[in-house]
Design a protein that fits this description.
With about 290 residues, this protein is an alpha/beta fold. Helix content is about 30%, strand content about 20%. The protein is built from eleven helices and 14 strands. A five-stranded mixed β-sheet has the order 4-3-5-14-6, with helices on both faces. A five-stranded mixed β-sheet has the order 11-8-12-7-13. β1 and β2 form a beta hairpin. The longest helix has 16 residues. It is elongated and about 60 Å long.
Amino acid sequence: MQRRSFLKYALAGAGAVTVSTMTGCGLVNPGGASAAGGGKTIKIIVTESAPYQEPTKIAKKLLEAKGWTLEPTYVTDIIQPNLAVANGEFDANFFQHNAYLKQFNQDKGLDNVGLFYVYSAPGGIWSDKYKSLKELPDGAKIGIPVDPANNGRALFMLRDAGLLELSEATVIHTSQKNITANPKKLQFVEVDQQSLAKTLPDVDAGFLVARMAADVKHTRADALAFEPDANQVPFRIVVAGRKDFAGSEKAAALKEAYQSSEVKAWFANYQSGILPTPWDQDPAADVAKL
């Protein structure tokens, strides 16, 4: 299957790639803002999904109590948020993981930076038909993400379970071309990230980001395999901004609000705490290792 554009499909954990909130070449901003916030106003562009929207609502209230105004604009596009931050329309965005941010910067010549983490987006392999990887028959069809940033995540888990052998590569640089042995003759069906949950009934097993698995009533407990912590690092979700915004009073206020006890409690209650909050980790240090 031919691979599709990385920039269009690479986001794990963000919304679909429709551009329903854009007109022409500019973003539609319900608040009427066309430039990053001045004074005590912070403008942020956020994807339309509960793990993004709900923490943003909490952060907004906390910031208001301290005299700040947080103006979020919600979108379902994954291209414009980085461009809108880079050109000064918004102060920050909240929609992407570190691997995507690094690749986007390289491809578009930008220097947006991860300001801080909000949550981690682990993945796993689930099945509607089988209870373990050992039950998979020869020739089983496995749904995996089509994009390069996420393609290797399922392959690594299958390798760790002894079902594949792979040539040496990091998780974000591994694809089917790295398979050196496939004794069960597993067949891989590459699907864009947002459609994997819908296609799970049509394959023998498939990779899903944990929150998407939860949406179709799967839990970590019934996963055939679950991503180890070390492999989750590139897929931690960041709030990102321009380099000149990092270290500012606004950035500090934003971090304090998103990394509050109230937001921590929300994640603890969301889908039985399936999304970790690695707030003690530094996205800049992590992205340098990718």
